Amino acid sequence: MHRWKPDDVNLAGDLIADRLRELGVPVTVHRPTIYLSVPHDASVTAAGTTYRAKPPSSSANCPEGMTGELVYVPSQKASLRSYTKNAVAFFGEEGATLGARLKGRILLTEGFGNPALTALAEEWGAVGVIAINPGVDIHWGTCTTIWGTPDLDDLPRKPKIPVVSVNKESGTALISEAEKGNAATIKTVMEEGWFEQAVPVVDIAGTDESGDFVLLHGHYDSWDVGVGDNATGDATMLEIARILQANRGDLRRSVRIAWWPGHSTGRYAGSTWFADYFAQDLDRNCVAQVNCDSPGCRWATSYHQTTCMAEMQPLVKSVIEEVAGQTPIFKRPNQAGDYSFNNIGLSSFYMLSSTMPDDVRAEKGYYAVSGCGGNIAWHTENDTLEIADKDVLMRDIQIYLLSVLRLTQAEVVPVEWRMLTAEFAETLKGYQAACGHLFDFSETAEGVTALDTALADLDAAFAAGKVSSEAVNTVRRDLARVLVPLNYTRATRFRHDPAITCPPLPMLDVASDLAAMDDDMQGFGLTQALRANNRVIADLRAARKIVEAALA
User: Fold this and answer.
1) Cβ contacts of residue 265 below 8 Å, gap of 6+?
2) 38 class by beta-carbon count within 10 Å (0-12 exposed, 13-18 middle, 19+ buried)
3) Torsion angle, CA of 28/29/32/37, rounded to 10 degrees?
4) CA pair distance 358, 373, nearest whole angstrom
5) pLDDT tier at 88 (50, 70, 90 boundaries)?
6) What is the DSSP string of 152-166?
């Protein structure tokens, strides 16, 4: 039986702080009280056989058991992962009509017990979810869409049904029971409440006295031993803290390094607390955030899944090419991985670090996981010391360190907003193509073009010595506060969107559905599109004014 104690996490946080002091790095340990859900044990019983299971954090506590008829619905997700709340993405066309089949029953399907799947099952009236993991091991996880400690508005989204994961062998047996029309009983043992947790934070002051800083961060709470997720990340940040502290007199901008608890048991509650408590400082002064999760794992020699916002891609590309000799392939950030700063508006890069090449993963017969460099020890008891690789870790430390240094040392912060205007233009073309004549995005596209032109003018003015580096840096920082929320959030600034990944310019994604709506629904959809488009146009205009003010 799994037993997790909140004090274990605090011991780890204090150990990090002690190590920092030994290295001569001053550290502040904050001790906020955050809301956590701690899974202890679970089982599934069907036809007299009890199967081993694990509950994700935030599953409903159901020690007495929840019984219901099993309904098996095959997953259509090739990777068995989804951060998107989309029934058709999970189950194909059958997903559009599953509600009638699942009411009062237990959903059995392949994958992980993730938030989007849990939210869908609840909407359909299911009384439980059993996720069949792809291999012999069962992976820990989380199943809530709530980001961080809930506020009053979030509480209605707390999962109200038990959710568990089983391994493939158990899942195959349970599929057989479902095909016979049999029922199953899910039992979960959870611990939920308010816990004081340690948050170690290092501030290494730069010399420019601007107050600007780069935030480097990662979580230290782990499942079981958790070497690849995320002890290697914690070690990376410790080493970077040591190096920067020893060379602090040479830093232009400041660096803040933070280690989070509550990553899995609080759905990023540690970083969310920090984003809330230090929101005004982050808003005024943070240049960018860099997330450090799962670097330095064995066989993880590729950078073909590098998480990065568009405006940071030139910086990240130059670093990875220089250190690793590879040209990275970028992916848009998921709504995951301690990206708790999107609503404030921080340009961001990295999440998971290096990963296994696809051919190596295929050769080993591994399925896709969300950490440990692609090693399927992720979130299991097998994530022990052999998952780390010293040579890979050294290279990843160099990548993180050089990335931070280029942010701190450059006269002009290397944030290239014209990369984002190019992305916006492509996104709008996609939405226009999807809705056809039903809605006109031409004014929005003109707003993107006008912003891009203003940015080009600013670059030219700076190159000609007509605008100072201080003015350009202010523009680049202030643009993030407008454009990052516009591209990654639906909620307002200083709140937190649900843990469900958004498409680009998410306010406009209704355009993708308009053509499939009947006349009544299309009217409602067009109303939503009009309101959303007004916001986007206004935000683009506000961004352009930030640039034009520097040119005046």
Assistant:
1) 4, 36, 37, 38, 39, 57, 142, 221
2) buried
3) 140
4) 11
5) confident
6) TTTGGGS--S-EEEE
317-359 tens-digit pLDDT = 999 999 999 999 999 999 999 999 999 999 999 999 999 999 9
Pick from 356, 5, 407: which is nearest to 206 by CA? 407
CB contact at 8 A, 245 and 24: yes
Type of residue found at 389: D
**pLDDT surpassing 80 at residue 6:** no
Side-chain-side CA neighbours of 85 within 13 Å: the count stands at: 17
How many Cα atoms sit within 13 Å of 199 on the Cβ side?
Answer: 27
* Sequence-ordered alpha helix ranges (H) in 97-208: 99-102, 115-123, 168-179
C-alpha 341 chain-centroid distance: 10
Q: Per-residue pLDDT tens for 502-540?
A: 999 999 999 999 999 999 999 999 999 999 999 999 999
Cα torsion angle, 489, 491, 495, 498, sign: negative
Identify the CA nearest to 239 among candidates 257, 225, 222, 226.
257
Please state whether the predicted TM-score (pTM) of the whole model is above 0.90. Answer: yes
CA 161 to chain centre: 24
CA dist., res. 239 & res. 214, Å (int): 16
- In 158-293, DSSP assigns E strands to 163-166, 183-196, 199-204, 213-219, 254-260, 286-291
**Are 340 and 147 contacting, i.e. CB atoms less than 8 angstroms apart?**
yes
pLDDT band at 1 (very low <50, low <70, confident <90, very high): very low
Instruction: State both tokens at 218.
Output: 């990662």
Question: In the chain, what are the helix, strand and coil shares in percent, each to the nearest 5?
Answer: 45, 20, 35
Tokens 């920090």, residue? 274
Strands across the sheet with 163-166, in order? 49-53, 33-46, 183-196, 62-72, 106-110, 128-132, 163-166
Which amino acid, one-letter code, is at 53?
A: A
How far apart (Å, rounded) are the C-alpha atoms in residues 92 and 425? 30
Please name the residue that has the structure tokens 């190596």.
360
CA atoms of 53 and 138, how far apart (whole Å): 7
Q: Would you give the end-to-end CA distance of the chain in angstroms?
A: 66
What is the number of residues in the chain?
552
Output the pLDDT for position 99.
81
Q: Are 329 and 409 in contact (CB under 8 A)?
A: no
E-strand ranges in 197-341 read 199-204, 213-219, 254-260, 286-291, 306-307, 330-331
pLDDT (tens digit, 9 = 90+) per residue, 427-464? 999 999 999 999 999 999 999 999 999 999 999 999 99
Give per-residue pLDDT as tens, 195-222.
Answer: 999 999 999 999 998 899 999 999 999 9
Q: What does the buried/exposed string (b/e) look like for 366-393 if buried means 16 or more CB atoms within 10 Å of the residue's CB?
A: bebbbbbbbbbbbbbebbeeebbbeebb
Tokens 């990090």 belong to residue: 16
Q: Is the pLDDT of residue 288 over 90?
A: yes
DSSP letters spanning 466-477: SS-HHHHHHHHH
